[in-house]
Amino acid sequence: MAKKFQVSFEAPAKLISGRAMVDENEQELKLGKFLADHIAGAAAERNVIKLYGWACRMAAGESIELDSEDMSSLKAFVELLPRLPLLLKAQCLEILNDAKASE
């Protein structure tokens, strides 16, 4: 049976200075919200329903369950998101790499 990982993108999105990004009400902005918006707005030819489901869960602040294949697919997809800023992309990839390293 394939190992499953619970992955959460509820970490605060951080500026290059290391400070958390905040909205106009000084509320921390979460990586999951950024990633969900970019996944939802991306063009995809494969795994459309799975990507949509992940985006919905991330937008709701929930963790997502990934097996090794899903982990690789999501990592590759994030790497190719053209409009997700490098700063946020790197933070999302670090979360995936950390989850994978914990196996």
Topology of this protein?
Blueprint: E1 4-7, H1 31-40, H2 48-59, E2 64-67, H3 68-80, H4 86-101
Antiparallel strand pairs: 1-2
Helix pairs in contact: 1-2, 1-4, 3-4
Written description of the protein model:
The chain has about 100 residues and is mainly alpha-helical. It has one domain. The chain is built from four helices and two strands; from the N terminus they run βααβαα. A two-stranded antiparallel ribbon has the order 1-2. Helix 1 packs antiparallel against helix 2, helix 1 crosses helix 4 (about 85-100) and helix 3 packs antiparallel against helix 4. The radius of gyration is 13 Å and the shape is globular. The two termini are about 15 Å apart. The model has no long low-confidence stretch (mean pLDDT about 95).
Brief write-up:
With 103 residues, the chain is mainly alpha-helical.
> H/E series, N to C?
EHHEHH
Mean pLDDT: 93
* Number of helices, where a helix is a run of at least 4 consecutive DSSP H or I residues: 4
In what order do the strands lie side by side in the largest sheet?
A: 1-2
Largest sheet: 2 strands, antiparallel
Low-confidence stretches: none
Strand content: 5-15%
Helicity level: 40-55%
Number of domains: 1
Number of E-type strands: 2
Shape: globular
Radius of gyration: 13 Å
Amino-to-carboxy terminus distance: 14 Å
| Class by SSE composition | mainly alpha
